Amino acid sequence: MSLNPNQKRHLRGLAHALHPLIQIGQRGITEPLLAELGQALDHHELVKVRLAGDRDERQAQTAALIEATGAELVQAIGGIACLFRRNREQPVIELPR
Fold first, then answer.
1. Is the Cβ–Cβ distance between 57 and 26 less than 8 Å?
2. Rounded to two decimals, what is the model's pTM?
């Protein structure tokens, strides 16, 4: 599923009040971290992740998280990335068209 600009704008507005649920530490992206992120995406659909390192490292971490979870990037500002993945069984967030 690809998000259109209107949907991304809506999700950015919803993500503004959220706090990061996942934080990438010194060990980087591990299997337990990916499992926790997958559970958070299943439950919340929209999740903020705190990234570590410089700009190139953060971009690589974001790309790895997106590839591993099947989520979509809503926004990335500094060390925070907002990811969205629709829950097929029980959608939580209503997206505009």
1. no
2. 0.94
Report CA-CA distances (Å) from 37 to 3, 6, 9, 16, 97: 20, 25, 22, 19, 26
Beta-strand relationship, 72-77 and 22-23: unpaired
Residue type, 77: I
d(CA 60, CA 67): 11
Q: Let me know: does 39 contact 47? Beta carbons within 8 Å.
A: no
What confidence score (pLDDT) does residue 70 get? 96
Q: Looking at the predicted structure, is the pLDDT value of residue 1 above 80?
A: no
First to last CA, the chain: 13
Alpha-helical segments (H) within 1-97: 5-15, 31-44, 55-69
What's the angle, vertex CA 90, arms to CA 84 and CA 93, rounded to 5? Answer: 45
Q: From CA 38, how far away is CA 87, in angstroms rounded?
A: 11
